Amino acid sequence: MSEELKSKAPKWFMIVAAVLLVWNLLGVMAYIMQVMMTAETLAALPQEQRELYENTPAWATAAFAVAVNFGALGCVLLLLKRSLAGLFLQLSLAGVLVQMFHSFFMSKSFEVFGPGGLVMPVMVIVIAIYLVVLAARAKANGWTS
After folding, report:
1. The overall pTM is greater than 0.85
2. Beta carbons within 8 Å of 37's beta carbon, 6+ residues apart
3. Does residue 145 form part of some domain?
4. Residue 93 lies in a domain
5. 23-32 confidence digits (pLDDT tens)
6. What is the CA 37 to chain-centroid distance, rounded?
7. What does the alpha-carbon distance between residue 101 and residue 113 come to, in Å, rounded to a whole number?
8. pLDDT tens digits, residue range 83-101?
9. What residues have CB less than 8 Å from 22, skipping those under 6 apart?
């Protein structure tokens, strides 16, 4: 019966889940690039940006890791039509919110990047919320089991 329920997911659901998996994989790549940044690469940044990276606490970096890795896993689970996707995407959203709390309220990111630096964080929050809602809708409609 669960196979029957899982097969009812509309085509758009799979397309959206795949696109959002790519989005999260780009986030994983950004995380890896940040934590693997060499001293030379860091030295090449403008001083204000370098200071942002150097002063980011471990908990904010960990929140970034949780956000992107759980987001990617959640999207894979959506593609596999597993209801456990909702939990992973909720954890991802929590990671996003913790990370953005640091960016918005504890760092000087807006002083460094200006108003344009607000676009990506807002997109990240909106997409993370959308993924949680999508997973809940999929479960409620029987698209996942």
Report:
1. yes
2. 53
3. no
4. yes
5. 999 999 999 9
6. 20
7. 16
8. 999 999 999 999 999 999 9
9. none
